[in-house]
Amino acid sequence: MPKYNSLRAAIELLKKVPGQYMETDVPVKPHAEISGIYRYVGAGGTVKRPTKQGPALMFNQVTGHEDARVLIGLLASRERVGLLLGEKPERLGFLLKEAVEHPIRPVVISNAEADCQEVKHFAAEEGFDIRKILPAPTNTPEDAGPYITMGMCYASDVETGESDITIHRLCLQSKDTISMYFVPGARHLGAFREKAEALGRPLPISISIGVDPAIEIAACFEPPTTPIGFNELSVAGAIRNSAVRLTNCLTIEEKCIANAEYVIEGELIPDSYIREDINTNTGKAMPEFPGYTGNANQAVPLIKVKAVTHRENPIMQTCIGPSEEHVNMAGIPTEASIIQMVERAMPGRLQNVYCCSAGGGKYMAVLQFKKRTQSDEGRQRQAALLAFSAFSELKHIFIVDEDVDPFDMNDVLFAMNTRYQGDIDTIFIPGVRCHPLDPSQKMEYNLALRDNGISCKMIFDCTVPYAQKKRFERSKFLEVDYRKWCPEL
Known about the structure:
Elements: H1 7-15, E1 21-24, H2 33-41, E2 56-59, E3 69-72, H3 78-85, H4 92-101, E4 107-109, E5 119-122, H5 130-133, E6 147-148, E7 151-156, E8 163-167, E9 169-174, E10 177-181, H6 188-198, E11 203-209, H7 213-218, H8 233-240, E12 245-248, E13 255-257, E14 262-274, E15 284-287, E16 293-295, E17 300-310, E18 315-318, H9 324-345, E19 350-354, E20 364-369, H10 379-390, E21 396-400, H11 409-418, H12 422-425, E22 426-433, E23 454-461
Parallel strand pairs: 1-2, 3-18, 4-12, 20-21, 21-23
Antiparallel strand pairs: 2-3, 5-17, 6-9, 7-8, 7-11, 9-10, 10-17, 11-14, 12-13, 14-17, 15-16, 19-20, 22-23
Helix pairs in contact: 4-8, 4-9, 9-10
């Protein structure tokens, strides 16, 4: 497993692996150009074609931000995530499952030891403007504004002191304000904010940008795998077998990630909301994981910025919402959650899980299931029901046998075409809460829906009936060491 705990060390690792990292010194504008370029280089995911998977890309010359760089696509390849976390790509879900089961709590170090506070900017200073300090990009020309898409948002329950970290959509609205979007009822920080607001109190929050990839992946766990009060930084510590280091913020009573490239310190102000596109009036927010640009919200909570600190020559890390980067960040923790829940209920049957690109890492999962005896018939569908319980935002589940590669969607569709009949192998579960960013889950799409974000979930059972497994054996090729003839492969 790689022995590092910072973004810069991760980049140095990738520089040693051909095809995983590249830099450009050609000047680039943060307004739409960065994402426009990376769409062709390596975005993948649900981004409009043409797109592809490619290397992480560092822009060294960002117009208007001469002392900063912008990195995009660090996690936009499952192979690259495997390199960065020290695990085979197909075993990443198991790595994260084990990390959840053996957490290592973060530790706090002094401000003097914290790399993230090498340079300090305070909101009370004349000329302070977060838009000039951070080279935050816009993804498209119609975005509501510059967005922070890879900010690790850290806050604590105002009564219990329990802390949590999640990633949210953050739009720079003015020189010292940021809007923060919460998926209703889906994030721990949302519960913290609502409790503080009910008490009429601001919620201190730090936003750490440019951190160890283990933190970025771990921050994407959700209930029930990590219930409220479970600090996902302890999962990152377990992945690295080394505690994540925090330090105290300078202007608020909260902590931040000590070796982050940037840290924003601020407070979520009670009963303070703003229209997300107040500066552009486009009606649009930014591209989201389903592949569509989300509508601007009419009222999103507001963060009042108190300070920004950063490293010398900092790296702004960003991602494209519908890219393969989101697939990996959202999907791999979901795989771990499904593996954990199904393994508890029926050990040894579930072989693997893949939350694929077509679902943005959230809407679709492929379960590879092994029926060991006749009495296992039907358990594959029970496993799918457990998967819906493990991650409520799943919409579609495909179940395949152990001889089908769940990471190869052509192989999954092979199973669907030869081991599935729609009228007997489809299970419909209508009227279930899913995720509001799916445009087909809007009431104007289906008048029968009781609310936006409600869906008909479906299970596609593409497994062979246990009693007929002999009829469905795939062609048996001669096992040879092909490298004798093709040593370059």
